[in-house]
Amino acid sequence: xxDRGRSSRTYDNRRTYGKSQGRRPSDNRSSGRQRTPAERARxxxxxxxxxxxxxxxxxxxxxxxxxxxxxWKRYSPxxxxxxxxxxxxxxxxxxxxxxxxxxxxxxxGKLEGGKVYVAYNxxxxxxxxxFYWDPNENVLLxxxxxxxxxxxxxxxxxxxxxxxxxEDYVILKTEGNTAYIALDFVQQYTNIDYxxxxxxxxxxxxxxxxxxxxxxxxxNTQVRYQGGVKSPVLAExxxxxxxxxxxxxxxxxxxxxxxxxIGYVKNxxxxxxxxxxxxxxxxxxxxSNISKDYTINMAxxxxxxxxxxxxxxxxxxxxxxxxTLAPTWIHVADTNGNISSIASADYVSYAHKQNxxxxxxxxxxxxxxxxxxxxxxxxxYTSRRETLITQLIAEALRVGVDGINVDFEKISDKCGEHxxxxxxxxxxxxxxxxxxxxxxxxxxxxxxTQYDRKEQGIxxxxxxxxxxxxxxAGSPEAGPVSSYNYVKEGITETLxxxxxxxxxxGIPFFTRLWKETPKTEEELKSDKGTDAEQxxxxxxxxxxxxxxxxxxxxQAGVDxxxxxxxxxxxxxxxxxxxKYEIWLEDSKSIEAKLKLMKKYKLAGTAEWSLGQESxxxxxLIQKYVN
Length: 626
Description:
The chain is built from 16 helices and 33 strands. The protein has 626 residues and is an alpha/beta fold. The relative contact order is 0.07. Residues 1-11 and 13-30 have low confidence and may be disordered.
């Protein structure tokens, strides 16, 4: 029985030992104690928290990955290549893209026979405005200071003052209504350089020289269409490439590459930004001018018939300090370029004896042609301009005048390029014959830029400002003919384009008496929906010379007051149901305008007169021109 007991204990011990060997140390059951329910609950909560933490970390990693992808897509550099045909505006085969300085212009170029041809309008607008294409007579012209270059379509030949010369390429081609000029020919007479590149075909033309901002590429980089890494790529730049810096932005610079691609590069990709003097050897054409060594005092003389020429003695006797007379002798008779003239050699002879020069005035109004359409028809044909110029020069030489004064006031926007070509051509003939060329102009405004005062200031001897008709005959409202600020504006705006030593300031010796009559109900109703609707009165005016204007105010029995804004004496009164207004040209207002001439060191002054000035006015004029 004792043996059985030992065996039983031994078995039980083995069983217990085996079970204890299979337990984990963490179960902490060596003592044989079981976990309490609370302990087991804590362990479950701990495991749950761990699973939650792992889940949250996984979510964070996923969000971070998504954010990284978004940021990468947003801020990583784009490799997209911009369509360069679209960049240059190339829409069909055979077109050549064109860059002029820092601007991509219309792709109106052709590449033929190894030569680049550029459309006339691109040459005129961006490269050299002195090239002139006459589509009516199919001829290309270029005016030199004393010669005319002429080229026919499809020819390798050209003429300079009727002397034939040739190139080894066709100079001028046409396609439809477009004329194309060989860039090599343009370069002969223009300070330009150019570079031709392909993929796609394009040409970079440089017209501006001197101090230029340049920079060196620090490392390989891209030129982008706009500032920003997501903008498409226009071109690749290599380390040490030089670019022209067009302008700077925050972190980007707008640059131009050597072959004319204009786009944006990161600031940090560039180094050694500096001003570099870029020049090209070229002999500019010298447009010599006649310049008087005295202050000019010119008076337009309104001559309407041959008998009126006899008044020259009286006209000169009434003045003091007069240096020049501009009689209104010549009118353009028709659109073919013929003239009608009442010029008088005796008039010129008498004026010369009084040491007064004569610059005969030619007009495109008030006799013969008198509309914008007619002036366009005249000036847009080379042969018609030639007829007009030939007759003008012949008449000037016949009567012995000293110069020609051009008073064309019917020039439309579309006529502008033809008008300035007429002035260029006339300037050559005047230069060849020793005649002074002066050109009359309106006070500069946005609507009369077609007169091209800048070019006038180069090719003509004098540019005259007509500082009057601020409020003109037929104006829908009353106002001064020539206020102080109007004259000042004319001078300061003209001086932005023309040297002071070539500018003559024209002032009026007349004014207008304005009559304002309230509109009737019928008139107001009739004006509905028209420009006249904004005016409640009908306005009429009559021009009066200085002395007669003073007499009118005296007869009305009213006093004048000083209009500070106009810089003139002003009077107003009512009679017969109408309001009368007048701004007077008198000694005070005229002196203020003459002081402007002195202040800005102009070449002189000119007067439009009705021959009714007091001697005090001419004494005042003499004071300022001496």
